[in-house]
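dumping the sequnces here before i forget
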Amino acid sequence: MKMIKFLLSVATVLVSQAVFSQQLVIQITQGVSNPIPIAVVPFEWQGFGVLPENITGVVTSDLKNSGEFAPIPEKNMLGTPHQEKDVYYRDWRFLGSDYLLIGRITRSADSALIQVQYELFDVVNQKRMVGEVISGTEAQLRDISHQISDVVYEKILHVRGAFATKILYITSQRISDTVTHYQLNLADADGGRAQVLLNSKEPIMSPAWSPDASQIAYVSFESGRSQIYVQNLSTGAREQLTNFTNSSNSSPAWSPDGTKMAMVLSKDGNPDVYVMDLRTRQLRKITTNIAVDTEPSWMKDGKSLLYTSDQGGANRPQIYQISLETGWNERVTFDGTFNAKAAMLPDGKNMILVHRAEVSDDFHVAIMNLERGSISTLTDSALDESPTIAPNGRMIMYSSKVGDHAILNAVSINGRIKYQLPVKDGDVREPAWSPFLD
Amino acid sequence: MQNNGFMKFGMVAMLSVMLVACQSTDKKKEAPAAAPTPPPAAAAKPAAPTGGLSAAEIAKRDAALAKTKFYFEFDKSDISQEDRDALVYHAAQLKANPSMHVRLEGNADERGTREYNLALGERRAKAVFNYLQVQGVAASQMETISYGEERPVDTGKTEAAYSKNRRVDLIRK
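..and the predicted 3d for all of it:
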């Protein structure tokens, strides 16, 4: 039996201001052309009362919204087995379901913990693929659900699932012409359980995760100027990392080993990329040209950075790569009039970026193969920005404009799957997808 | 609209300038359009605290000082000639009042990435800072900050809306 980790137990103390985040609700807009049929039988609840979370519902939504699966409607099911001895493969073959997920939920009389037992079956080959018991508190039922989705996804697609991950994002509500409220939010990757981490009447920007997901960094203007802050998610402890006045302090990015923070400071007159040793707080200036250098992003080996710069021509930024060991600086992108905000995919071969083509006014999220140098766009609205990559490298979340509002969207790296995370009012932007949480 | 007063005032002031100072307009046209035009000798005078100014000169000065929003072309950080003329009066005012401080807030429209736009807003604020410094204003009297695209005046998706957001706000402190 496995105990669920107390991941990101972001206590309510952290949310000092009693403002509730607007829930984002995931809506799939395009899936693969032949999604895999799977039957998720409603798990049997053997305890008293009503559980606060519908585990089967969360798992079904996860699988459906991944765009890879087509869950069989419950009303079509010929039976509702909860354990292996009640499974009749022919019933599920008859429905055309390739896979079957069943489960039971129990609570011992003297325990606050809930046990969720689930089993996954391969209907075509008539065999049990996996089964386990996960236990946790009522508050963790959603985590348990996402973990089950992760196992199903991995067992069937042979790629690690990223349902049990989190996103950070910024929301803003314009109250009047001069007053806007800004929030930094944390939610499940599907938008569930959203909560506000920071409330401000001044802008908040550039949320980023530490590689172990225990801390976040962001830029807040609350002091009257953009400064970088670091916040511990479990204790809520917060620290201001920069305090340069007459300088912008922006674009924090943790090194893959978690010991350094790349950032952008303009204290010497123009924005340059720096790397701060987080233990000693020593700053090292990485770029020294007089152009704009910003949006640093680490290569996986931690030895060089990608960054955005207009050193090749004012207001026509391109992606560059600079070695932290030798200072070797190399231009990476050549196609298009605007290439910015690059980040490597986990495969180490492809990079995502924001791209404006030669004869276009629109900004799209694009993917570029670094060996071939070819750029292909993945999105199609006019102002797509702030791409962030799921830790399994399958999906990219980004923000775009619909009407006068900004919403979050996601697209698979092959462009075949698309979903949205709309919100009723206000703007949602700058998603930052967490690393895996274990 | 909250700027109505300002606008009316500005229009009246400009009108009187145009009526009284027709000749000087012709003169200006001959001046080279190149960037660091030194302020016309006559222009430096009006901001001086002592009198001796004509009504038209006072109106022109006040109109210039009432202008605290400086707009920019898309993806550009060049100050327009009209704004340069106004900034000459701001410079004279700051030089005459060493205890006065201004905060130059740079902004960008929403096209492009947010961090790059933060840099673009900063570049605009620095352009105004540098122009005022060249006019003799002490750097210690000025500070720059960029809000990038985070504080739009107009949230519309039209060029008219965007053009309002590409600006530097001069705020007296």
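Chain A has two domains: 19-157, 166-433.
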